[in-house]
Amino acid sequence: MPFQAFDTSLESRPIRDIAYEQLKHAIITGQIPAGSRIVETVYADQLHISRTPLREALRKLERDGLVEYVLHRGVVVRAFTIDDIDEIFTIRNAMMMLILPSVVQNATAEKIQELRDILKQMDAEYERADAEALAISNRLFHGTMEHISDKLRILRVIDSQEEYIKRFQATTIASVVRRTNAHQEHHDMVNLLEKKDLDGLKILFQHHFEESKETCLSAVREKKLIEINE
Amino acid sequence: MPFQAFDTSLESRPIRDIAYEQLKHAIITGQIPAGSRIVETVYADQLHISRTPLREALRKLERDGLVEYVLHRGVVVRAFTIDDIDEIFTIRNAMMMLILPSVVQNATAEKIQELRDILKQMDAEYERADAEALAISNRLFHGTMEHISDKLRILRVIDSQEEYIKRFQATTIASVVRRTNAHQEHHDMVNLLEKKDLDGLKILFQHHFEESKETCLSAVREKKLIEINE
DNA sequence: ATTATATTTATTGTATACAAATTTGGTTTC
DNA sequence: GAAACCAAATTTGTATACAATAAATATAAT
User: How confident is the model over B1-53, as pLDDT tens digits?
Assistant: First the structure.
């Protein structure tokens, strides 16, 4: 079976959304490599669904920019370039700068505690060098931080970029030295937030993203991870 | 007929895309007001197509954030708040700041001439106070300027926000005083670009968007143009 | 042999059919 | 008269069927 299915069913939820999540996951993790053509019948059979909901899922992926559509030829998984990674982190950073003021302003004691709870768990994951778990917690941490601002549209932009970052996050987290620094930086973030030090946070986040980007870029350059289109 | 259809057919292009464009247009122009429920059969009949391509169009609109999906209840046109407008212009401005350096760097004589040609046409439209034509030219002008940078992902973010701005652009352009100032500013932009004055451009664009936002916000507040959800 | 041209096959595009769920209206019951 | 319940109608969710287009293969002509 070309890509692993994971159960997300739970209650009654349109299977087009389940298909959407699964395909997205498979693309992000590279199970379906860039350049691959997604033939509807193949994936419909694999997911044991009909073409109708699968096509609806594809239309969503199309708007997400994860796949490209060619007339009468169906969809193809889009490739990445070094420039893409650079832009993604640039956008991410700019958006963070925009919401930081309201994050500082809205940060209640409860919210800070919530962040500390996540950090506590990350400490444990860090100790046992569980990169997989750290990747998930990392997203949770950043997501929680960002959602303290209630800038819904900006969060939406961050989310859309996030999709792409995930695709390289494994690479970034794999770097031991970066993992150590990033872990310390996460602690610093919460401390600065508690002190409501906006300027300090701005500098720290800028640094945080810059380092992540560089780690990611060098890892990608070394391993030539970027897939070539067509 | 609740909303006017316009012919985009031309060659062979999936009708789901035509449906998508038409629905998008109808939502942006307010022909389908916020809060409206989009019943599939109603619009499929109206567009003389079946539900299948219509649904695919809806999935795209869903990812665009123009409509909201509720389980087993279909899609509803999303409403706007004052905060939305504020965020949209904030994002727009931040993105412009990100691409301005590469716009200045990549601006060839040809590109500047292209901008001047557009300005020439806008002069005429401004003279005869053709707000409708100005709105279109305005987008062309900004779009051309932005595309001088080849930051594809950032342009994508700008584009996605643009959808929403369109919805209020008529309002902004309708203001006579804002129209005059904006028109002058457009000329200034090209002059500064020719001089490769990055700092000047940054200040001008920041001002340009700030003024547009304020005009838009006050117009909306006065006329209570914001539609209420549910 | 190579090109040109049918012919078949694979795949996407659209329509229709049916199932599942929700809403609506009415009837019954207290 | 209000609440609870049942039935019909509406609407979404999914599957299937068929049409249209493109790709692949085979066949024919030079």
Answer: 344 444 333 346 889 999 999 999 899 888 898 889 999 999 999 999 999 99
**Which tokens in the block code for residue B84?**
């939305």
Tell me how far apart the alpha carbons of residues A28 and A23 are, in angstroms, rounded to a whole number.
8
> Looking at this protein, which amino acid is placed at residue B156?
R
Round to whole Å and give the CA distance between B151 and B159: 12
* Interchain pair B153, A88: CB under 8 A: yes
Task: Select the residue of B64, B84, B154 nearest A91 (Cβ to Cβ).
Answer: B154
Which among A148, A147, A177 has a CA at the least distance from the CA of A162? Answer: A147
Which residue of chain B comes nearest to A83, CA vs CA? Answer: B151
Nearest chain B CA: its distance from A189 CA (Å): 23
Question: What pLDDT shows up at residue A170?
Answer: 61
Domains of chain A: 8-78 (1.10.10.10), 81-227 (1.20.120.530)
What the block records as the tokens of B1 is 């007929």
- Residue A7: count other Cβ atoms within 10 Å of its Cβ: 7
Q: Which residues of B touch A62 (CB under 8 A)?
A: 60
Residue A40 CA and nucleotide C8 C1' are separated, in Å, by: 21
R_g (Cα) of chain B, nearest Å: 19
Q: Name the nearest CA neighbour of B93 among B213, B209, B217.
A: B209
Are A9 and A22 in contact by the 8 Å Cβ rule? The answer is no
Q: Measured between CB atoms, does A106 come within 8 Å of chain B?
A: no
Q: Which amino acid is at B46?
A: Q
CB–CB of A165/A99 below 8 Å?
A: no
- Taking alpha carbons only, the member of A108, A93, A79 closest to residue A142 is A93
Residue B112 has pLDDT above 70, yes or no: yes
Task: Give the pLDDT score at A171.
Answer: 61
If you average pLDDT over residues B129-142, what whole number do you get? 89
pTM, two decimal places = 0.79
Contact A87 B13 (CB under 8 A): no
In a 13 Å sphere around the CA of A186, the CA atoms on its Cβ side amount to 27
Rounded Cα gap, residues A3 and A22, in angstroms: 9
Confidence grade of residue B97 (pLDDT, cut at 50, 70, 90)? very high
Residue ranges in chain A modelled with pLDDT below 50: 1-11, 225-230
Nucleotide nearest to A19 (CA to C1'): D14
